Every structure is written in structure tokens, then in C-alpha cells.
Target: Interferon-induced transmembrane protein 3
Amino acid sequence: MHKEEYEVSVMGGPHSSGPQTRTVINMPSEISVPDHVVWSLFNTLFMNFCCLGFIAFAYSIKSRDRKMVGDITGAQAFASTAKCLNIWALIFNILLTIGSIVVFIIFSAVIFQAISQMKNHEGF
Model:
């Protein structure tokens, strides 16, 4: 603040002793736009079904970039797309995990059945 006052006086600003007017501009507080970068990174590293996690990560980075330049609308649009892709990646990977467990259980039961029949055949 002192530097600005000094620069004004050096530049030849007014030196009147009258009342000074000040203008106050109320800036809106920064709107918080979640960019979902951590969630996208997790989906990219651990649950990257059809590259949805990687695409969500790209949209999250775009959202963060838009937020940094002050484009809140663009940041919200990219964040919404990233969130949607993360949700779909999560749903697909939950279904894939459940399907893998079911296939493993069925495969184990078939193998156990085949081993049991082989033991019964050897007994005759």
C-alpha cells in the first residue's frame, strides 16, 4: 500500500487537502467448482474400463484449467462431464468385478464337480 501511495505522489497525483472519494467494488466470492481430479485419477489407475477413467481424467484437467482462467461456466461443464464418466466407469467396474466373482465361483464349482466324478469313477 505504501508503494502505491509513493508512486502516485511521484507521478504528480493531486495534493489537495479536500475529501478524497474512494470506490469500492464488491467482487463475487470464488465459486467452488469440484473438478474430480482425484476420483478420475483413481479410475484411471485402478478401474480403467474402456479408458473411461482416462477420458474422465482429461476432462477433469480441462475443468481445472478453465477454473484457473476464470471461466466458471466452462469449468462446470467439463466437471459435469468428468463426473458422469467417473460414475459410468465405477458402475461398469462394479459390474465387471461382480461378474468376475460369479464366473470364478461357477468355474470352481465345475472343477470341483469334475474332480468328484473322477474320484467316483476310480472307485469302481
